[in-house]
C-alpha cells in the first residue's frame, strides 16, 4: 500500500508523489515515540499538570449533574412544570458545557520546543539510509 498525491478532476494535486505506507507509518511511529520519550515533553507535561482551578470546576460539575437528576425527579413527580424543567435543564447543561471546555483548555498539554533529531531532517521516507 502507498500514500499518493492523487490527481483527480477538480483538485490541483500533482499525481506524481508516492510514498510506501509501511515505511511512512514506521517513520511517523518512530518520531512519535522519540517525541513522547523526550525530556522536553515530560517536563512540559508535568508543568502543565492539573491546575488548582480544575478541582473547583470538577466539584461544580458534580453538583450540576446532581441538580439535573433532582430536576428530573421534580418533573416526574409534578413538583415543577415541563416549561420550568426545560429552562432549568438548559441553564445547567450550558454551565456543564462551559465547565467541560474550561477543563479541556486547562488540561491540554501544549508541548512546544521539542526538537527533531538531526537524522529526521535527512532520512529517506522509504526507510533507506541518510
What is the CA-based Rg, rounded? 25 Å
Question: What is the rounded distance between the termini?
Answer: 23 Å
Helix content: 55-70%
Number of strands: 2
Work out the helix count: 5
- What composes the largest sheet? 2 strands, antiparallel
Would you list the SSEs in sequence order as H and E?
A: EEHHHHH
* Uncertain spans: 109-114, 119-130
**Overall 3D form:** elongated
How are the strands of the biggest sheet laid out side by side? Answer: 1-2
**Helix/sheet category:** mainly alpha
Task: Tell me the fraction of residues in β-strands, as a range.
Answer: under 5%
Mean pLDDT: 80
Secondary structure topology:
Elements: E1 2-4, E2 18-20, H1 21-36, H2 39-48, H3 52-76, H4 82-107, H5 118-122
Antiparallel strand pairs: 1-2
Helix pairs in contact: 3-4
Folded structure, characterized:
The structure is a single chain. This protein has 130 residues and is mainly alpha-helical. The chain is built from five helices and two strands. A two-stranded antiparallel sheet has the order 1-2. α3 (52-76) runs antiparallel to α4.
Entry summary:
By secondary structure, the protein is mostly helical. The protein contains five helices and two strands; from the N terminus they run ββααααα. It has helices at residues 21-36, 39-48, 52-76, 82-107, 118-122, and strands spanning 2-4, 18-20.
Task: From the structure above, extract its key features.
single chain, 130 residues, mainly alpha, two-stranded antiparallel ribbon, 63% helix, elongated, disordered C terminus
Amino acid at each position: 500500500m502507498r500514500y499518493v498525491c492523487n490527481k483527480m478532476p477538480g483538485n490541483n494535486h500533482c499525481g506524481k508523489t508516492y510514498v510506501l505506507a509501511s515505511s511512512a507509518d514506521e517513520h511517523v511511529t518512530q518520531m512519535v515515540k522519540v517525541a513522547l520519550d523526550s525530556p522536553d515533553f515530560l517536563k512540559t507535561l508535568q508543568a502543565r499538570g492539573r491546575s488548582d482551578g480544575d478541582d473547583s470546576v470538577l466539584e461544580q460539575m458534580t453538583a450540576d449533574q446532581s441538580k439535573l437528576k433532582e430536576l428530573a425527579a421534580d418533573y416526574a413527580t409534578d413538583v415543577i412544570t415541563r416549561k420550568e424543567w426545560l429552562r432549568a435543564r438548559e441553564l445547567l447543561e450550558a454551565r456543564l458545557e462551559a465547565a467541560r471546555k474550561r477543563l479541556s483548555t486547562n488540561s491540554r498539554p501544549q508541548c512546544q520546543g521539542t526538537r527533531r533529531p538531526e537524522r529526521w531532517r535527512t532520512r529517506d521516507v522509504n526507510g533507506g539510509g541518510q
